[in-house]
Amino acid sequence: MHIIGNKKSSYELKIDYVTHVLESIKQNKDVLIGDIGIDIELIDFKIAIRNYRLSVKKKSRNQPSNKKISSKLMAVSNVIEGSPAYGLLMPGDIILKVNKEEVGEDLLLLDQIMNKK
């Protein structure tokens, strides 16, 4: 699902993410969104190697191995000042794993990991 905002912003939501949120609402559950204060851009793995200086040696170790996860990765595009990520993450950082779990481009998985207590 692609949402067009104003001239400066637009975003995409994967359908499984939207489905999960709608199911939570239908079941009168709280919709938890693990917000650490970053904007994420999905980038192709080959672009990450070329533009983000991932080495070929790291490629074999860092390329998502889960068959459900495509060849895209999450890159931090913005960090909100004063947020939990401020001073820890920077634009251009690539998120490969969270709590030792590969996330690839799976935003729903990222939220689920961040919502675990």
- From the 3D structure, determine the CATH topology of the domain at 35-115: Pdz3 Domain
Structural class: alpha+beta
Instruction: Indicate the multimeric state.
Output: single chain
Number of strands: 7
Helix content: 25-40%
Query: For the largest beta sheet, what order do the strands appear in spatially?
Result: 3-4-5
**End-to-end C-alpha gap:** 29 Å
Please write out the topology.
Layout: E1 2-4, E2 10-12, H1 15-26, E3 38-44, H2 45-51, H3 56-62, E4 72-79, E5 94-95, E6 97-98, E7 101-102, H4 107-115
Antiparallel strand pairs: 1-2, 3-4, 4-5, 6-7
Distinctive features:
4 helices; 3-stranded antiparallel β-sheet; Pdz3 Domain; 117 residues; alpha+beta; two-stranded antiparallel ribbon; 7 strands
